[in-house]
Design a protein that fits this description.
Pfam families: DUF3703 (PF12487). Residues 92-113 are annotated as: Disordered. Helices cover 66% and strands 0% of the residues. The longest helix has 20 residues, at 63-82. By secondary structure, it is mainly α.
Length: 113
Amino acid sequence: MSRITDGARAVYRQEMAAAKTATTAQVRWGHLERAHIASQPDPWLHTCNHMAMFMLALRQRDRGEAFGQVVRIIVAAPGSLTGRYPEGDTGRVAAGLTTPMPIPSDLADALSR
């Protein structure tokens, strides 16, 4: 069961679209991270976001990030379904699997709609 708001779904779609058209990997990662924050309550969107992160890590030949994304792909849906995910976490390996992070204020505003 998804607990994602319409505002969060809209943010997710906007950030994923921006990631696809980003001109650099760094900008693409930024959009994927923001999409991750929005996607966490929804098992499907959360898993799709980690798949996109995995694909980018593969394109960059970043083995550590790719492996970390495989782990996250496995736990994303169960974490969303049970509500056991670290809010605000960017979804990257450097962030840690269980580390909550502050949600950027512009995202917090959009997610609350």
